[in-house]
Structure formats: structure tokens, C-alpha cells
């Protein structure tokens, strides 16, 4: 929930929570996601195939297969990179993010001059 606040959802001037609906939506999404994950775990432990190679060769792998391990790592890194770019776009073009150092106890601001210099 603190990360929803840093994105600026439901937060007003001074860091005051003005709308709790984004937090409710986040809670509902987490409940649904955990239910799907739990159902998938029960399905694959009781009903699903012994190994995925039998039904879905794409999901089967051998730990010694360097190409498959590289592909799996690459897919994860690409998804993480896309998530980072979504955060940058949110901060710059879609409402900004919550800045705790803004005058008056913090405020939501749009990042207008991004930099990669850590010394700034």
C-alpha cells in the first residue's frame, strides 16, 4: 500500500489520504491473484501432468540447457525493464509521483527534468 501512495493514487497535498478507493482496488486485486495462484498450485499438485514437457514442451527445461536458462533470464529482465519504463512514463506524463521532499510536507509532482546523475 505505501507504493500506491508513492505513485500518487489517493494522496493529496501534504501526504494526506483523500481517497481510499485505490487501496481497496489493490486489496481486491491481491485477493484475486492469490486465489488464482492457490488454485493453480492445487491443480498442478493434484490433477496436472507430472512434468510439463508432456503437454507443453515450451515450459519444459533442463537446468543444463544454457540457451533455455538464458531465455528465461532474458524474458524476466525484459519484463522488469518494461515495468521500469512504465514508472518513468507515470512520473513524467501521467500524473507524477509523490515527492516527500516537496515543500509543505510532500506533494505529488510531475518529473519535468529527469537525470541519470546520482549526484544531483
Automatic annotation (TrEMBL):
Q: List the record's Gene Ontology CC terms alphabetically.
A: photosystem
Pfam families, per database record: PSII (PF00421)
| GO MF assignments | chlorophyll binding
State where the protein is found.
Answer: Membrane
Q: How does it sit in the membrane?
A: Multi-pass membrane protein
* Gene Ontology BP, a term: photosynthetic electron transport chain
Q: List the transmembrane segments.
A: 20-43, 72-92
Q: Which UniProt keywords apply?
A: Chlorophyll, Chloroplast, Chromophore, Membrane, Photosynthesis, Plastid, Transmembrane, Transmembrane helix
Question: What name goes with this protein?
Answer: Photosystem II CP43 apoprotein
* Species assigned in the record: Astrephomene perforata
Amino acid at each position: 500500500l505505501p507504493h500506491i501512495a508513492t505513485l500518487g493514487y489517493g494522496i493529496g497535498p501534504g501526504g494526506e489520504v483523500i481517497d481510499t478507493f485505490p487501496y481497496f482496488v489493490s486489496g481486491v486485486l491481491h485477493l484475486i491473484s492469490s486465489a488464482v495462484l492457490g488454485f493453480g498450485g492445487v491443480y498442478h499438485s493434484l490433477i496436472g501432468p507430472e512434468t510439463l514437457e508432456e503437454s507443453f514442451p515450451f515450459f519444459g527445461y533442463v537446468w543444463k540447457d544454457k540457451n533455455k536458462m538464458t531465455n528465461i533470464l532474458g524474458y524476466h529482465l525484459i519484463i522488469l525493464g518494461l515495468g521500469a519504463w512504465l514508472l518513468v512514463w507515470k512520473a513524467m506524463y501521467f500524473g507524477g509521483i509523490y515527492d516527500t521532499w516537496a515543500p509543505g510536507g510532500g506533494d505529488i509532482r510531475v518529473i519535468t527534468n529527469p537525470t541519470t546523475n546520482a549526484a544531483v
